[in-house]
Amino acid sequence: MSLTFLPPPIQQINSEIALHVGVNLYVLRLDLMHPWVNGNKWFKLKYNLLEAKEKNFTTLLTFGGAYSNHIYATAAAGNLFGFRTIGVIRGEERLPLNPTLSFAVQQGMQLVYLNREMYRQRNTPALEEYLRQRFGEVFIIPEGGSNLNGVRGCIEIVDGAMPTAGYAYAFNHICVACGTATTLAGIALSLNEGQKAIAFPVLKNGAFLAQEIESLLTNYLASDLPTPYNSPASWELVCDYHFGGYAKVNDELLLFSKQFTQEHGVPLDYVYTAKMFYGVMDLLKQGFFCKGDRLLLVHTGGLQGNIGMEEKLQRFSKI
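Below the sequence we write its predicted structure tokens.
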């Protein structure tokens, strides 16, 4: 498995819709950084891995669902950088393992299952103590890498990917799908006053994430961790493109994703990026953006999840 991480390319999207309204559209292809540890997951994991190494931990423990991109990436990163990994999975064990969990096991991850009631306590000291008593001294990474280390890594997503210093300022809107809000918080901290981060929650009723974002930003700025600016750039949540909730899809979204890939050569994952890209294209039609705007859409990876999603859809279509 390669330790080489490639700089993510920036790809222009020559969309008729964007051209018609005079908007320049680009995609930051984080999905192309590494075969297994890519997208925003690498940035969320980076400083967690460094802290674990500095503190001489040999085992990482983290949390996720059965199709989690975070579980997938953590298993691969642990194998790459010499950590033992434990994945605490929400729900009961189902055999045979789906592609995500099969890959995690192949990378050496030990899977542990918690019922949903216990899993809801994953961020409590009581459950963390239980896990440490069971597995010994482990470095715990929260679900999705959603902690200040994760925010620190996500500060590097936009500016760190730019080919030249200051190139990031060429974009006045940075668009990203939103799950735990960690990526959005990091991006907001990396932008200047003339730029805006726009997040598309993939969860139903995603407006609650505003509080999570404010908490992450406040706690990060109160820490000793580095930041380019003393305050975040403006940001906005657009909550109308969840398609029914987390990991929910319909024929319209699937058709959009297929057509976008065919037209522009950019594969989209159904859980995150497809919803964000659909939202951006719909907002373009509505005149949400202004002529001359330059949009950078962050492709956060997660394509591995499409295999499991397609298998589920095939099963349901046969019922």
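Residues 83 and 286 are 48 Å apart (CA to CA).
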